[in-house]
Specification:
2 domains; Nuclear Transport Factor 2, Chain: A; single chain; 6 helices
């Protein structure tokens, strides 16, 4: 008798989850969308740059963008970037345009700044970073 009640309870729980799945997916539960993945990569990159975490910033780049000496090159470029501007760009909304396996993320600061991303093995990586349009 006890196992029959357990099976009924389990069946009821499954039915509720099936009914709620569209609602949960719409509320951010479920697989991330491409714009969400792009935003996460860009935010991680910008915050890593703002914090001076060069290794983490380099990890967000494609192999082509990373080059052979990402950390050395990034250290040289980091001195010209304002951490507060990077944080502002990470915290503000982005204008994301997706074209197949490439995307552009327009940043709020500085004016006209954008990141070019490509999808590599199902993961979005920055192919050119912080260029001004």
């Amino acid at each position: 008798m006890r196992s029959q009640r357990s099976m009924i309870a389990l069946g009821g729980l499954l039915a509720v989850l099936v009914l709620l799945s569209p609602v949960l997916t719409g509320c951010g539960v479920g697989p991330a969308t491409n714009p969400e993945k792009i935003s996460k990569t860009a935010v991680t990159y910008l915050k890593a740059l703002a914090d001076g975490d060069i290794a983490k910033a380099c990890a967000q780049l494609t192999r082509r963008a990373e080059g052979g000496a990402c950390e050395a090159a990034m250290t040289d470029h980091l001195s010209g970037l304002d951490p507060d501007t990077l944080r502002q760009a990470a915290d503000d909304s982005m204008d994301i345009e997706i074209h197949g396996d490439t995307a552009m993320a327009g940043l709020s600061a500085p004016q006209g700044a954008r990141l070019r991303l490509v999808k590599v093995g199902g993961v979005w990586r920055i192919d050119s970073g912080y260029t001004l349009g």
